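> @MW can you paste both from yesterday?
MW: sure, first one:
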Amino acid sequence: MKGERSAAPLLVVVGPTAVGKTAVSLRIASVYHGEIISADSRLFYRGLDIGTAKPTPAERAQIPHHLIDICAPDETLSLGEYQQMAYAAIDAVQQRGRLPILVGGTGQYVEAVVTGWGIPRVPPQPALRAALEKLGGAELARWLARLDPAAAAAIDPRNVRRLVRALEVTLVSGRPISTLQSKTPPPYRIAIIGLNQPRTLLHKRIDQRVDEMMAAGLLAEVSALRQAGYGRYLPAMSGLGYRQLYAYLEGELTLAEAVQRIKFETHRFVRQQYTWFRLDDPRITWFDLEKTDGETAVLRYVHDWLTNQPQTSEGAPSHG
C-alpha cells in the first residue's frame, strides 16, 4: 500500500453467520453510496451459491460487489493474495468517490485487511504439509513452541491447520513466522460495526436458513459439484453444508442426519466466530438487530461517523 494515501473511510461490517450482515450492508450501501467488498472466504468460489448464502444476482445488480466468484472450486486463494485484492478493491471504490464496505464473517480475512497483517510469502509445500499433518496437534504445538514461542502462544493447539502453516513458514523461510507477521495498519479511517443477536434467536435463524437452503436446492447444487469432478476434500468443499451433503451422497449419513449435522456444526461455527469478533473488542461498535430500531441505529451511527459527529448515548451499541 502507498503510505501517501489520504485517510479515506473504510466501513467494516462483521458478525456471526445468519445474523443479517447482507441485508444491513445492502441498506448502508444504498443510503451512503457504497460498494461491498466480501470478506467471506466461501464467497470466492464459483458454483457455491446456495450453501454460502451468496448475495443474489438481484442484490448484486442493486449494489456493486467485489471479490465474489473469483475462483473455481479447485483453485486456492491465499490470505496474502486476498489481502492485496481487497486493498486494490477498496482503493478503486474510494477513487470512484464511493464508500467501501468490507463485509464478512471470516475473521482472519477481516483482520488481515483492518490491521495490515504482514503475511509471509511462502507458497504451500504439499509434501511438507502432509508430513506435518501426520504428527497431530499436540506434537505440532510442542514443536512450534520450541521454534517460535510467540506464534505457539497465539495459536489454539487444536487448530492443526494454523499450526501446520506456522511450522511450514518457519521451516521453509528459516525465520519464526511471528517475526514475519508484523502489522502495518492501512491508511484508512476505519469504523467496525458488529451485528449481534441473542444466541438462542441466532440458532433458530440458522436452523430456518438451513431448511430454506435445502428447499432452494442445496442438495442439487452439491450433487452437481460432485458430478463435475470437484472432490469432497477440496478446501472449497470443507464449508458448512457441502461436506455434510457430500457425506450423504457417499452413503455415510442419511439426509436427515446430514441436515441436522449442518445445523449443529453451524451453531458451533458461530462460537468460533465470536473468538474473532469479541463483544468486548473496543474497536467494534455492536448493535443488537433484535431491537426494532436496530437497523436505524446502525444507519445513524454510519451517518455520524461519516460526518465526524461524536456518538451519543442514544446511538450506543448493544451487547445483547
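MW: second:
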Amino acid sequence: MTNSTAMARKVLVVSTITILVVGILAVGSASSFYSLKETGSDTTYLKGHVLRILIGIIAGLVLSTRSDLFFRRIAFPVYLLSLLAIIATFVFGDTQFAPRVNGSVRWLDFGVRILPSDFMRYGFVLLSGLLISRGSVDIRKFRGVLVIASFALLPSLLTMFQPDLSGTAFTLFVMLVVLFVAGARFSHLAILVGVILLLGSSAVLIRSDYQLDRIKASLQENSLQHDDNYQTLQARITLGSGGFYGRGLGQSRQKRGFLPEAHTDFILAVIGEESGFLGTTAVMLLFLLLFGSSLWIARSANTAFDAVVGGGATAILLTGVMIHTMVNSGVIPVTGMPLPLISWGGTSLVVNLICVGTVLGISRRSPG
C-alpha cells in the first residue's frame, strides 16, 4: 500500500465514523417525536438505528479482510438472489410478506423489512467487475456496453413498476458510473442515456399516475393542492429555518408532526434546522472527503476488478446523497431516499457500510 493510498484509507475511515456519529445524533433528534408517539419511548428508533450500525460495521469489517477471489465468487449469487427477491415483491405483493408502503410495494417483510434493490445494486457492481475483468465482455464495444447495462436495466424495469422511481434512477446512475469507470466510450454512453430517457419517460407517461403526480406536483411548487407539495414545502421551511447557526441539537420544531419522514427521507432538512447552514455544509464536506478517498482508492486499485467494484461502491454512496439532497432542497420531485450512513433504515445503512468495507478491502490489496 502506497503512502497516498494509506492516507486515503485513513480519511475514509475517519469520515465514515464521523458521519455515523452525526447520523446517531440526527436520528436521535429527528425520530424522538414519532418514536414517543408510536412506541411510548423517545429512543426506540435510535436504539434500532445503533443496532443496524453495529451490524453494518461488522459486515463491512469482515468484507474488508476478504480477497478479491471471495468477491468474484459471490458476485453472481448476490445479484441473482437480489433479483429474485425483487421479483418476489410482485409475486407476494400487498401481502404481509410484501406490504404496500407509501403507495409502493418494494419491501420484503420477514419480521425485518428488507429492500432487495439495495442488495441488487451491490450485486450488479460485483457482477460487472467480474465480467469486465475476466474479458467476458469488451466494454469498448457497444455490444459489451449493452451486456453490462442489461444486468441493470432488467431490475430497473421491475422497480419502476413497483413503483419505485428513486430506486430506478439510483440503479441507472450506478450503472453509468460503472460503465464509465470500466472504460466505455463516451459516444456509447450518450446513446445509452438517450435511449433510457426516451423509454423511461414513455413508460412513466403510459404506466403510472403515481409517478406523474409526483412530477406535476414539482412543477406546481407553490400550490398546496398536491400532497407531495406539502412535503416539499415543509422540507424547505425546515431546511431554511435554521439560519446560519441553527436552532441547536434537539430543538427542531418541524419534526414534531409537521415534516413527514423526518428521520428517514427528510433528515437533512432536520440537520439544517438544528445546525444551520454551517452544520449542513460540514456534513456535505464530510461526504466529499468520503467520496474523494473512495475514488482515490478505486483509481489506485491493483486490478480491473477492484477498480470497477471500487468505483461502483462509491457510486452507490454518492447517488444516495445526491438524490436525498435534491429532494430535501426541492430540486427534484419527492421520492423516498434515505441519506447514506445517516438516515434511519436497515437495508440501506447496512449496504452502505458494506460498500465502505469493500473499498477498504481494495485499499488493502492495492500495490505498494
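> thanks! The mean pLDDT is 88.
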